[in-house]
Amino acid sequence: MVHHQLVASGVTDVRPAHHRRSVPLRHHTRERFRPPPREALRRPPDPAPPRRTGVFVSAAAGGVGSAAGQLARLLGARRVVGSAGTRAKADWLVAELGFDAAFVHRDGPVDEQLAAAAPEGVDVVVENVGGDHLEAAIGALRERGRIAWAGAVSQYDAASPPAAPRNLFDLVEKSGRLEGFLVSRHRDAQAELEEFLTPHLRQGTVRDPLTVTEGFDHVVDAFLGMLRGANTGKAVVRIAS
Q1: Contact 216, 239 (CB under 8 A)
Q2: Cα torsion through 183, 235, 100, 142, rounded to 10
Q3: 148 vs 137: CA distance, rounded Å
Q4: Do the Cβ atoms of 236 and 211 come closer than 8 Å?
């Protein structure tokens, strides 16, 4: 019924979930059972860095960031670092999700905090913020590193576009890659992601945190709250029990 109502109202990009009975239905919401984090964390086809991968995830306490950090650990990352908007969220990333370090971006310059948290630099970045986070990520990137740019929450409501990162040319010197990342371009990896994640979700080795808003009438409130960073994990709206 809900699917038909959405299509009738003009929302056409709706796909019925392939429900794996061993995994609760709530895990099938978009960030968890779509492929961005794992695809973004794959190394580029260039020769791999000599040391195991260091990963930085910005907005790490959100839906995409919390998934990406956990996947990085499962895929063998040497060190996983995240940024968050509050001390409680940063502590949660380390204590509950297995990040090695997390900092509060409001506590000081992002580039300095990232350098302190990842003194050897990073090889992979999942970037969800833009602005000073993107500039810091470029600064910390090691040779042949990769930045998967999935979002720019810092500028969604900006009156004018921000200036480009001042260190953008560093990507040339480092042979680094900065690549935009859209879920819709990687749907061919859906089945692989589900096969990989299902046992971890079932065993509890991957957590799927939710911030739930009740009622369709509060969709806008939930969306604005997500942009303000009010959510921990995925922000979802429950429209029926």
Answers
A1: yes
A2: 30
A3: 11
A4: yes
C-alpha to C-alpha distances, 56 to 97, 136, 170, 210, nearest whole angstrom:
14, 10, 17, 22
At residue 223's C-alpha, the angle toward residues 33 and 149, to 5°, is 55
> Any residues with CB less than 8 A from the CB of 172 and at least 6 apart, and which?
none
Name residue 89's amino acid: K
The per-residue pLDDT for range 45-78, each reduced to its tens digit, is 444 444 468 999 999 999 899 999 999 999 999 9
The answer to whether the predicted template modeling score (pTM) of the entire model surpasses 0.85 is no
Annotate the chain with three-state secondary structure: CHHHHHHHCCCCCCCCCCCCCCCCHHHHCCCCCCCHHHHHHCCCCCCCCCCCCEEEECCCCEHHHHHHHHHHHHCCCCEEEEEECCHHHHHHHHHHHCCCEEEEHHHCCHHHHHHHHCCCCEEEEEECCCCHHHHHHHHHEEEEEEEEECCCHHHCCCCCCCCCCCCCCHHHHCCCEEEECCHHHHHHHHHHHHHHHHHHHHHCCCCCCEEEEECHHHHHHHHHHHHHCCCCEEEEEECCC
How many CB atoms neighbour CB 131 within 10 A?
Answer: 18
